[in-house]
Amino acid sequence: MYTIAALYHFTRFDDPSAIQTPLQALCKAEGISGTLLIAPEGINGTIAGSRAGIDAVLAHIRALPGCADLDWKESRSETPPFHRMKVRLKKEIVTMGQPDVDPVARVGHYVDPADWNALISAPDVAVIDTRNDYEVAIGTFVGAIDPATKSFREFPAWWEANKHRFHNKRIAMFCTGGIRCEKSTNFLLGQGVDEVYHLKGGILKYLEEVPPEDSKWDGDCFVFDARVSVGHGLQEGPHVLCYACRRPLLPADRSHPAYEQGVSCHQCIDETTEEDKTRFRERQKQITLAKARGTHHIGGL
User: HEC states along the chain?
Assistant: First the structure.
């Protein structure tokens, strides 16, 4: 059984590069896989491994400057969610492209999962899903507004074009684990919105704590690992990944004429060239050969 830890923490790192190498070495020594992003504004990522290995890495991160109160969310998987470990340096740990946004300074009001239903049911509350369009497509809260953004960078422009819709409204926002809302709530506060709220711990915490019979969640939640999606109780969902476009697919979608494993699906078949598809077919061939040998091809996940 693999323990999966999803984490983020906003803090000031004066020299992120000094953090990268020791953290990469520790993850390797403990047999940990996944991705961690380090930037001057903090750390973000999801890692998986043994219970002891995850505990060792979390203890190391909590000892970093300003990370003593690090919070994280855990789940389990019978199969390896990742096949390699990456510790990367980035400009932002979640890219919004707004240099004046500072979650360390202030954010919206945190709302515990147990109190979320009451908030989003209030008639003066507008609920906004801050995730990408392909994530929203497989599940969201009933009645939530979908900005239809392809990346988080598009959110500020969407807000500018749509803010007139939310006059005299309280704004409640949510995302997968909470990290986007740290920035989006700070952004809206900076735009003069008086009351901004966000789901503490994100969708994952809600699905973990709120029973299905009380839930206002409809569908599954996309996750960025081999599980692809999870439902209530963080049970693995039915989705698989199109390795051409990285979008989630239901099992029935693989019967669509546009589906070719590792090459295309009905969502992306018109987005790539024949040259791209030829390259994808060769990659899929190597993945299949590696699997037959009992090894893992790095392009497989």
Answer: CEEEEEEEEECCCCCHHHHHHHHHHHHHHCCCEEEEEEECCEEEEEEEECHHHHHHHHHHHHCCCCCCCCEEEEEEECCCCCCCEEEEECCCCCCCCCCCCCCCCCCCEEECHHHHHHHHHCCCEEEEECCCHHHHCCEEECCCECCCCCCHHHHHHHHHHHHHHHCCCEEEEECCCCHHHHHHHHHHHHCCCCCEEEECCHHHHHHHHCCHHHCCEEECEECCCCCCEECHHHCECCCEECCCCCCEECHHHHHCCCCECCCECCCCCCCCCHHHHHHHHHHHHHHHHHHHCCCCCHHHC
Q: Are residues 128 and 56 part of one domain?
A: no
Both tokens assigned to 30: 């403990």
92 contacts 16 by C-beta, under 8 angstroms:
no
Q: Could you identify the residue written with the tokens 């109160």?
A: 69
Q: What is the domain count for the chain? A: 3
CA atoms of 88 and 241, how far apart (whole Å): 23
CATH number at residue 211: 3.40.250.10
pLDDT digit string, tens, across residues 71-97: 898 888 888 889 899 999 999 999 999
Q: What is the pLDDT of residue 226?
A: 83
Phi/psi of residue 285, each to 5°? Answer: -60, -45
Residue 100 lies in a domain: no
Flag whether 156 is in a domain: yes
Q: In which domain, by residue range, is 195 found?
A: 109-219
* The pLDDT of residue 299 is above 60: no
The catalytic site residues sit at 175
